[in-house]
Write a structure and sequence with these properties.
By secondary structure, the chain is an all-alpha fold. It has 2 domains: about 40 residues, no CATH class; about 70 residues. The protein contains 2 helices and no strands.
């Protein structure tokens, strides 16, 4: 059962095409899709080819950018790993010094009394 359109200005649904109110409305059906979007499939195919070409160009450019910058990226990654190793060794050394200071403090305090 299709909802009828009303010409009354008071009906908020009056401007909505009747196809949207059809019980069997389904945008997956080509007829409904064409009715709603007025698609010209010949123009759509040309547009799709054009957009595909744009995407190919973008993909090529991204590949070029990645390849030119990959050496810099891996160099920075190597430097980061080296810095992290130094930080780990420094933290380990500081921990050892703190443990040593804990042992020294009581004996130093007792010896001075």
């Amino acid at each position: 059962m299709a909802k009828q359109q009303h010409s009354s200005k008071g009906d908020p649904l009056a401007n909505i095409p009747a196809i949207f109110f059809q019980v069997d409305f389904n945008l997956e059906r080509p007829e409904d899709f064409d009715t709603v979007f007025n698609v010209d499939f010949k123009k759509t195919a040309l547009l799709q080819d054009k957009l595909s070409s744009y995407l190919d160009q973008i993909e090529y450019e991204l590949t070029e950018q990645v390849s030119t910058r990959s050496d810099e990226f891996f160099e920075a990654l190597t430097q980061l790993e080296s810095t992290l190793d130094e930080v780990f060794h420094t933290v380990t050394h500081i921990h050892g010094m703190r443990v040593g200071l804990r042992d020294v403090r009581p004996s130093t305090c007792l010896a001075s009394v």
